Amino acid sequence: QVKLVESGGGLVQPGGSLRLSCSASGFTLDYYAIGWFRQAPGKEREGVLCINSSGGKAYYVDSVKGRFTISRDNDRNTVYLQMNSLKPEDTAVYYCAIRRRCLSSWQLYDYWGQGTQVTVSS
């Protein structure tokens, strides 16, 4: 059974950091691209970052460049989203999802995790 589980969300003050994890089970992540998406209340889900099977990365939100990084550990079957210098506008539920190649459109991803809440507030 294909399963993705996000973890690492929480409440953080502006300027703080969080590292989200996306752990896979039931399959190996080696041959997949993994995207991180987020959805704020009342807003459409948006792509944030994606990493493909060879390690290439794509940013889909300009505001996270220089603050967010994505990495993968195939031995642990896990992908990470390191978020630094967090801002209140980063508040959202963050999801990971997989497909064969990175694309920005969330509708084209095949499997999703349940999401983890990130709240940036003082």
Describe this structure in words.
This protein is an all-beta fold and 122 residues long. The chain has strands at residues 3-7, 10-12, 18-25, 33-39, 46-51, 57-59, 68-73, 78-83, 92-99, 111-112, 116-120. The strands form 2 sheets. Strands 2, 4, 5, 6, 9, 10 and 11 form a 7-stranded mixed beta sheet that branches. The mean pLDDT is 95.
Unreliable residue stretches: none
Helix content: under 10%
Structural class: mainly beta
Number of β-strand runs: 11
- Can you give the mean pLDDT? 95
N-to-C series of helices and strands: EEEEEEEEEEE
What is the CA–CA distance across the termini? Answer: 40 Å
Strand content: over 45%
Largest sheet: 7 strands, mixed
Shape: globular
Describe the secondary structure blueprint for this structure.
Elements: E1 3-7, E2 10-12, E3 18-25, E4 33-39, E5 46-51, E6 57-59, E7 68-73, E8 78-83, E9 92-99, E10 111-112, E11 116-120
Parallel strand pairs: 2-11
Antiparallel strand pairs: 1-3, 3-8, 4-5, 4-9, 5-6, 7-8, 9-10, 9-11
Defining traits:
122 residues, mainly beta, four-stranded antiparallel β-sheet, 0% helix
Please sum up the structure shown.
By secondary structure, the chain is mostly beta strands. It has no helices and 11 strands.
